[in-house]
Write a structure and sequence with these properties.
This protein has about 850 residues and is an alpha/beta fold. It is built from 31 helices and 26 strands. The longest helix is centred in the first third of the chain and has 31 residues. It is elongated and about 120 Å long.
Amino acid sequence: MNSLQGISGHIRRATNVLHFAGRKLLESVRIFGIRKTLLRIFGFAINGTLWSLIAKRRASLLSSATDESKAALSTFYPVSEGPSASEFMTRRVLIVAEMSIPQCKKYRVDQKAELFAELDIETKIVNWTDFDKVRNLLQSYPIVIFYRVPAVPDVILLANECKRLGIRTFWEVDDLIFDPEGYSSNTNLQRLDSHSRNSLLDGMKLYREALLLCDEGIGSTKVIAQVMTETTGRPAYVIENALDADTIRIAENIRDKVTKRVPFEDGVTIVYGSGTKTHDVDFLCASEAIYNVLAKRANVKLRIIGELNIESRFGRFAHRIERIPFTTFEGYLETIASADISIAPLENSIFNNAKSNIKFLEASIVGLPTVCSPAEAFSSVIVDGETGLLASSPTEWEQALLSLVDDPVRASQIGENAYRMVRQIYAPENIANQQLASLVSTFASPNPNVTRILLANIYFSPQSYGGATIVVEEIAQRFAANKNVEVYIFTSWSNTSAGDYDLVRYSAKGATVFATKVPIVRNRLMDIKDYTMGQVFKEVLKSIKPDIVQLHSIQTLGVELATVCNDFDIPYTVTLHDAWWLCERQFMVTGDNKFCNQQWIDPQICSSCVQDSQFNRDRSAIVLECLHRADGIISPSAYFKELHIQNGFEPERISVNKNGIKKPLQTYKRHPSDRIRFGYVGGATPIKGYELVRKAFSDLPPCNVELVLVDNTLNQGRSTVDLAGLNASNPVRVVPAYTQETIDEFFSQIDVLLFPSQWKESFGLTVREALIRDVWVIVTEAGGATEDIVPGENGDIIPISNNSIHLKNAMENVIQKREFLKTYSNPYKDNIQSFDNQAAELFGYLENVIARHKMKVA
């Protein structure tokens, strides 16, 4: 059995090492490229350190802490300026920790989470070597504690990311590993081989740098906190090791057992918990006294837990010296509890004076009296002779030990006094309220007097693609201009170096943006309901706790966002952008690019159009349930409201909030031209009538006209507009997509907008942008796109058809109005809604939804 367990352990360790090496390899390739990564590996292999670095799981495996590498690493993240995270985020603490030492993990990591819980503050613990996971979590936490983490390049990058995000950072430790001078006072160092000793001292520089990278410090003792402040010139807080719930539970169970045992009945056992081989010098402080006690009292035994080298003269008492290997924490406490007296000798040094009083705590919680060296952590809490004994010389040690050995009643009383004292002073709720609370009181809190609105949309700046994104960006900016409103965005992230569902936070358009990497490899169900996307969104909601969520265009983000809102009891509203909520194909267009003309969506008709009729029915059930459960539904046009009424939604549940447009500048004026310039901005897609435009324009004879085609992908360094086969008799010009900053320039250089959409649009943003800028519009009977068209006065409406003759005829009619177009001004442009009006109308609507929800909850 033992051999099998050993093999299993080797396999597990080998798997962990390979996982670590693989992760570091991928990370290095992402940051430095393949060539530099291979050169680094080759260099490590040549100097013989490659396997050593992997085996020791050194996080600096493929990196080096040079300014050049730091600059390379920093390019992975977006540059962003925004408010401090604690100004708007919920109080939550991320603990990034070294967790390979069980005792340290217990007292400084797991216990810290328990202490924060006493103050109703949520924490998350993550291993510092899991770099990508840490980086993701940083995006949604305002406070980070780095416990015992060295400043290797990965950590330097994490610290820089904290600064970018405005995160408050603490560096925590429980000894002087960051202070070479103080640490060197530990004589145990001299017992290490030179290689180990030099490696340890070199590593201190990395810990010191990590401390300096953080805003403040946390130490387990006053001495550590003081040295931290002397090092950084910044505050450091004392959070002592405490008694956590698990320790108390284990100790109480042990005490119930040992009460049946009569102390000192079978002799007296003095117990020393060494743990590691670095305590040899400490034991020497008490060894003379212990030797004398063993010599003078034949009923005394010595129990050593863990590794310890003792003097050869103790050989004469070998039959009274018990050695027990270090075991589990519960086993360790049981071993202590079955003894009679505990000792905690410490060499008098700066290093030891910074140590905590764990040995005293662990003995006291099981009712054992302890003799301790007078280090600060012991002398500050022990009342000598009442809750423990302090000894600094061999004579004092011998006297203290004999006073307990010879007086079982006194020993028992001191043990019970110590037990009651530590249960009171070191109870988790007491440490939380007396020590941690002072640190928490310095945390900033979000403003309770603002309205927090989260807008979810598939894209957002700098990915400003499509009309829906323009609307959301403009609305966000106007909401953010209100000092009583905070705006948040949940959107997608297209960084090719990012992993699936990676999260990044940045500021744009006055909003705080949370963007997540949507997986490229995905199935159809994930486009509508993605559980993992919901978990990412859950973290975002927990971090900001919005008053309301407004789901705009959420294809690929999915309706799991709404499910999470329900789980958190946060009201959500839905904007009916496109027909995504009714049609799997999104635009109600059949496979041959014809509008299906359905008013009530019949699944039987749809079954002949979609790939999988059962999936279509399942999809409809999923998205419609989300829509029916919404706290409000917003339609950008009267037409789209009516379409959804026809499909089972009550009229009173749908409010029309027409999309706004950016008004032209007062200096705007169309540039006259002898040519009539037709503009098309719909992209190279059949649904927008691209082929109809090509055919209709090619069929025109030479007549002094021009076609201006907008290629929406030119700004991305590629082109989707192919002029091959156009065979036009008049000139064609391809231009990049306009932005909200260049919109006036684009429309000032065209006379007619072509909008031959092949489906019933939910709105038609481009149509309004043209109308308000005195540009004539030729539009198909495209639902909401026609609602601001007055035929013959500001545009022409033609049938939806895949026959280009209707578009060609309308273009020829406009050509006959050449002189009219030169001085044309739209008499109805004041009817076009601006973004200002839309935002004000939408904000009022959302406020009403929030108010109704609060009344319902109350």
